Amino acid sequence: MSGVGEGLGKVEVRLRWDPSPAGEPPRHLDIIAATYTVDDPHGRPAYVVHYDSRSPDGTINMNRHSQTGMGFGFVEVMSLEFDRLSSAYGRVVVGVAIHQNGGPRTFGDIANAGVVVAEGYTQLLADDFTGVADATAATVAEFTRTASGAWELREMVRGFDSDPAGFTTDMGDAR
């Protein structure tokens, strides 16, 4: 955990949801992180990290991934090591997208969905997606580098009507 005034160090984004009811196709959610350069903090992401990728330098990784939810707490976890992230990057946006196989689904269709952002044992943010119940994807948090180089978190729960591929393009918009 970071010391006072040092900004964020290693942060985890944890996602939970219950499996689909019997006879229905699996419900699959994904944590997605988009990293933006200092020179273009609201443009195209320099890179995107999700279930089958990691950052080029290993500072953003998917530690745990689920394609069905299990109902046993947080089944998907992404780690972000801001204390090691290159100074070339000034913004990281993290969101959650629902795969749309088996028909359209929104957060309102997903039982017991929730996300927590934590640094060590300190919970920085928690949300249950009720504010974006009609959305198929949502940003959760925006991390930005200050002038001193420290990283800060801003809660940014915004809903989108996107599939995971389209969401990676939309999520960094500065609306």
Read across the widest sheet, the strand sequence of neighbours is 4-5-1-7-8
The tally of helices reads 1
- Terminus-to-terminus distance: 31 Å
Residue stretches low in confidence (pLDDT < 50, at least 5 long) are none
Number of β-strand runs: 10
DSSP strand (E) fraction? 35-45%
**Structural class based on helices, strands and sheet pairing:** mainly beta
Helix content: under 10%
Radius of gyration: 15 Å
Sequence of secondary-structure elements: EEEEEEEEEEH
The profile of the biggest β sheet is: 5 strands, antiparallel
Output mean pLDDT. 87
Q: Globular, elongated, flat, extended or rod-shaped: what is the shape?
A: globular
Please provide a written account of the structure:
With 175 residues, the chain is mainly beta. 4% of the residues lie in helices and 41% in strands. The chain contains 1 helix and 10 strands, in the order E-E-E-E-E-E-E-E-E-E-H. The protein has one helix at residues 164-170; strands at residues 10-16, 29-37, 47-49, 60-64, 76-81, 89-98, 114-119, 122-127, 137-145, 151-160. The strands form 2 sheets. It has a 5-stranded antiparallel beta sheet with strand order 4-5-1-7-8, with no helix packed on it. A 5-stranded antiparallel beta sheet has the order 3-2-6-9-10, with helices on one face. The protein is globular, with a radius of gyration of 15 Å. The protein starts with 9 loop residues before the first strand and ends in a 5-residue tail after the last helix.
